[in-house]
Amino acid sequence: MIASAASVFRFLLYVPSSSGAEETTLTWPRVKLTNVKSLATLKPVGFNYPLVNTPNLLVKLGTKAENGVGPDMDIVAYSIICQHLGCYVGFQATGTSPPCNASFRTSTSEGYCCCHGGEYDFGRRAKVIGGPPERPLPSVKLEYDSTTGDIYAVGMEPPTIFGHGPPGTIDPALVLKYDLAGGQPVTQETVFTSGV
Amino acid sequence: MRLSEEGIRGLVAAAIVSLMVVVAVRLWSIDLLLGQSEFGVFLAIELVAFSMLLYLYTRVSYLHVKKDWFLLGCLCLALLLTLAILVR
Amino acid sequence: MDIKFRRIIDWFDSRFGMTETILRPGPDYSINLFYWLGALMVVAFIVQGVTGLLMLLYYVPTVEQAYSSTLFIIKYVPLGRLIETIHLYSAYAMVLLAFAHLMRGYFASVQKKPRELMWIVGMLMGFVVLGFGLTGYLLPWTVISKSATDVTIGMLGFLPSELANVLRFLIAGPGSDAAELSRFFDLHVVVLPAIFTILLAAKMYMFEIHGASEPSTGVKKKVRSIPWFPNIFLYFTMLSCVFLFILLVGSVLFPLALPAQFTPSAASAFVPQPEWYFLWIYQILKFSAFEGAWAVLPLVGITAFFLVLLLLPFIDKSKKRNPAHRPVYVTLGLVFVFEVIVLGVWGYFTPGQVIPNTQALVIMVGIPLVISILSWITYRTRRTFQPAGSRSGSIFRFVSTPFKAPLLTGLFVLLLTSCSIPLAFAVNLMASPWSNIPLLVSSVLITALLLYLMSRIVKKLAAEHPVMGARHEA
Description:
The structure holds 3 protein chains of 3 kinds.
Chain A: H1 2-12, E1 31-35, E2 45-48, E3 55-60, E4 75-79, E5 89-92, E6 110-113, E7 118-121, E8 127-130, E9 140-144, E10 150-156, H2 172-179
Antiparallel strand pairs in A: 1-10, 2-3, 3-4, 5-6, 6-7, 7-8, 9-10
Chain B: H1 6-29, H2 36-62, H3 67-86
Helix pairs in contact in B: 1-2, 2-3
Chain C: H1 2-16, E1 26-27, H2 37-56, H3 66-76, H4 80-107, H5 116-138, H6 143-155, H7 161-172, H8 177-210, E2 225-226, H9 228-253, H10 264-267, H11 279-285, H12 296-310, H13 312-315, H14 327-349, H15 357-381, H16 394-404, H17 406-430, H18 437-464
Antiparallel strand pairs in C: 1-2
């Protein structure tokens, strides 16, 4: 009887592997996001990467960023799942007020999390510049094709996305393993779904 | 004139039952998509009327009918009827 | 008319035998609203079941269609908006009734022998009701509900990671939104109703064996026995009608307005809050002392508190039931009630804000202190409580005592208000005690001195103006 209870427990905890196939080597999906010509400055574009349920924002900052790509080195993309408690981070250009905190003005282009006022500097690899988060947002590795002007998402930088593995994991092999677990990897069709 | 007298009780009960029947007919004919508020109010009227009927019959055997509760019920009905007209 | 009823009843009775068991006569003290709060919860549960089943005809539990199917019910299904609103308010009613039922049982000390297991089953049912609220809230997939659920599940991340992973997996699945919605739907519609029904059956069975608990203030010698039909049946039906009436009128006057659909960009624009019945827990987690990894402390604390409440019959061994003889027990209960209400309201007005430790201390230490003082005064100056049913108002006489000695009362009020100053200093310094030790020590001492003086005054008041005792000492 105890054995049957144990097997029911295992049934409940069964994780289907996200690809459904055998253990192949995991790789980051490679998807095209947009073209630099159709990217307006300070107008963020939402997209899913590397899984269908991990939203991110791509934005052209207008000023040079530490990890920016593109002709002006100012195009960046970060996960918008806050590293504090998993709320969603919104983009606030310099000098604007977030919709949830009208008395506050941002001093730089940043991600502002309405839950507890966490701030991430988008120009400096989403470094935490205010509020309770303790780690920066994971950056999306972007590739810029200078011949066509297309921008591709090709990977995720450490740390792991919130909710994926132990918080603050920075080993790239582990980041690959954890970020790709718990959902379907994006394809070109699913990069821009569910109204992100 | 105490409500515990059999004749009066029967009359009042008949009045309540006829009110319930009228409201039931009205409920049947309400447009269920647009008149949802009205439906709810009339359903509430039915419930109040039903509990007043029950009160009329319980209290006789246990305590005397207290006129105040009954009047409160009538007041509720009046309020609900006004509400029904308002939410139309 | 009565004879016809009797024949119908007899026909059913000879086949079901109900008048010997469920439908047997009850004691006269059970014709009282407080004895029927649990029964009203069953009515609410049935309402939930019926409205839920009706909505189940149209609701689709996938991420793409959850919101649109809910919107479809509200906009295009005949009576859909009314049904959806009734479902929501009946859910709130269940939580409120559960709280009222718990508190009435607590203060009346019903968990003594032989009803210990009823208490435990009842507490488990209370947890299931909270589970219903949590799982149901996610199903419409609106901005507010999905964000709130994300925060709640995110709280699990503060537990030790193995436990957190298992819990998160059991509740929310392997991590994708679709799995989470699917699991919550399964829990809400199948698992939790089944568990609730089984627990309800157990509780009803035990209720049949033990009957309604006697009033905690003692029974008069002669307890009248009320027949089940028509009296108790009709009383209960009336109560249900009033309850349904309030539910309906509320649903008509305040119809449900569905918030926007959930999208991450919409979610980033506002501050998520859990539902109102979880706000008190959320508020404690917002204290600045519990930031980051320290959040595990209040989580463990609240779990421990619920465990104590669950196992109360085995922790509280005293045989006394009368609240007049249980000062500590009653005070703890009052503190809990006030804290839950204050924390909930406070949480509503401070969305997303971290609460500074000084304020937290005032609310978490100050309020219990005030309640304890008031409770202690009440217990010191009362002489007796009247048994149930008599209304000669010894409470009124107690309340009027302070006005019979205006000077003493005035002095007491003066001491009380001036006590707030050193108390405020002490509380402010508790956040960083080492910054000003002399001030901290002196304010604590002055507070203690003032409290002692107040207690002398209360003693004098009690000695000189006794509240007149009634015929029996309880």
